[in-house]
């Protein structure tokens, strides 16, 4: 036999990883685990346990505690009790603990990798080479942030007790993504791992003991969705961080709406994998293998929709099928295995069901003829062609090794298809043309875009979604902000609901011989003054009861028109930052021209002194955001690969704003200006107390080169208009700066499309105080970071 023949017939022999150490650890615990609360193992209060099994064999690995509300309560109490001492440590002390955790993860890396593979079914190659190194990297990176926290985030403070709920697809990695930033910023934690994969979280509990982390700083409770629900609803939790399905994310959003809990959600995805005809097809196919068959496709950012340029589709499908025929499926502890087991039977059945539905809807299903183990939970790599963009397999997250393939002709069509989903987590673009790649990347609605690469992650680069893939980022500077709040805001008093006391009487009109000319204020939609659809107006009175004028009573139809106008104006987001700055300066200039008349009218409601202060500070505020417009930049990250990641700050889109009542002009400008300075378009509901300000503002906007539709104003009953805005599915974010009832209402009403919410939580904000009324805290809510990864070198 020649060498070539030998080479061609060479087969892989079995290369199993030794599981003894991991199994011995389970034995050492009697294969039975309680919760980890206040630094010690604690039996469940209600006594319930459940089994966790190896999905590749079905064998039982251990029993773990089913957390009840009592267990959750005891864990939250432990975290609360530990908080003051943990927060009193210096940043350097926090850094040392995080560094110790990173070191200890590294020292235990093989044990953790094997345990992960046993519990989850993922190939050992992945847990050993990807999951666990990234866990260590996350703790290292955040040890650094802990060290720098006071310098880099001065004025910010920790949220407090954080509840964290994670899924089963990257159990220890998701734990690291949650716990590292929480500890680095001075929070204490109660974490609940997924019911299918609790073991590495319990191993991590032991690591916390080993490094001497103070008791109660990290608490781990195990259990199913009901345990997670109890954690979400616990009144003494200050923040919830969740990764999992969009459905549960929505339920959590609803459950926390009536509270002040801060919330970050990392949810599902249906990410496009776009291949242009000029791509290096062989590399793209290798990327695709990682994109959809990594971790059996149980990846929130899996490249599950293949979009191929039509001219190359046939060739590409052939190459993909050839490559699929070489994938090796089998026992995940075998080091030469590509595809391991599906985590649980329920997931396997779900994948099966969705594939059948895809075929019923017209897709053709192709699977390679590779051996599938007869025992355990396996699903073969699957390619669905002729998929209709509207079919279930093109729209729903399958969370399995199933690729849905479609074609496109032009870059524009690729973008349209790619964005044709409610999700927006990740995307891949393969093209040898840097211009095409970046042009397309910029238009994709996705938190991460990998150009000519796929599934790269790093602690320095924020990860998270657009649209119904959730909000908030994990990793990087923006990830830390999810665990911090401005210190003044945390302690701010409730907003005052009593009418503003007038500090000086308004001046009486001098000419009393003729009646004043009726002043008609209108709505402002799409750059035009518009009469309200209702045909009604409402009276606006001054602080002394005097009739000041009538404002239009806007309704649902007006809001809908305003949203449409704002959407149409989204080109504003693509205008250069310099152009936006110029327009804002011009707005300030024109407001300045009218300062006396505007202050005069406003004084009838808020008094002369406040009115003058609102106008002069308002002009300054516009200047501030004009200044920020071309300075609130993104970043370039240098992850530990041959890559750069461009962290672009992109506008969120169309934002609904409920402006504060108590400072009709300054409050309005303090919300509208940051939002438009970064490229959003807005529908603003001006102060119900003095909506006549609208008339002054549109005259300013009309003379300031502000493109039509960038700012739309609808006056009326704030509560009614807010409801329509909050429920509107074509708005990307809603800000509500009213009272506590308003804050809870917008959060509850806006669950439908999971739009981002920013409120004052019913707390008073001093708009006249620079520290409270303007700056990065507002700007940070106007953007979402998109990381575009670009490889360099050969
Ligand atoms: P899931 O969203 O139900 O579970 C994730 C975590 O949330 C688990 O720890 C679970 O115990 C907990 N949980 C469940 N219900 C809860 C509730 N009401 N309140 C608080 N916590 C709750 O995901 P599941 O059922 O395991 O998987 C179903 C589908 O979800 C998958 O097929 C996949 O499409 C998607 N999924 C997406 C993930 C992602 O990373 N984007 C991760 C896991 C699942």
Describe this structure in words.
Helix 20 packs antiparallel against helix 22 (608-629), helix 21 (595-606) crosses helix 22 (608-629) and helix 25 packs parallel to helix 26. It is globular and about 115 Å long. With 794 residues, it is an alpha/beta fold. The strands form 8 sheets. A 10-stranded mixed β-sheet has the order 14-15-16-13-12-17-18-32-26-25, sandwiched between helices. A 6-stranded mixed β-sheet has the order 9-8-7-10-11-19, sandwiched between helices. It contains 28 helices and 32 strands. The chain binds 1,4-dihydronicotinamide adenine dinucleotide (NAI). The site of 1,4-dihydronicotinamide adenine dinucleotide has 26 residues, from helix 9, helix 10 and helix 13. 1,4-dihydronicotinamide adenine dinucleotide binds at residues 165-169, 192, 194-195, 224-225, 228-229, 232, 243-245, 248, 251-252, 267-268, 300, 347, 350, 397, 399.
Summarize the structure.
This protein is α/β, with parallel strands linked by helices and 794 residues long. Helix content is 42%, strand content 18%.
Assembly context of the chains: single chain
Radius of gyration: 28 Å
Q: Kindly report how far apart the N and C termini lie.
A: 37 Å
Bound molecules: 1,4-dihydronicotinamide adenine dinucleotide
What general form does the structure show? globular
Percent of residues in beta strands: 15-25%
**Class computed from helices, strands and strand pairing:** alpha/beta
Strand order of the main beta sheet, please?
14-15-16-13-12-17-18-32-26-25
Number of strands: 32
Mean pLDDT: 95
- Count of helical segments? 28
The percentage helix is: 40-55%
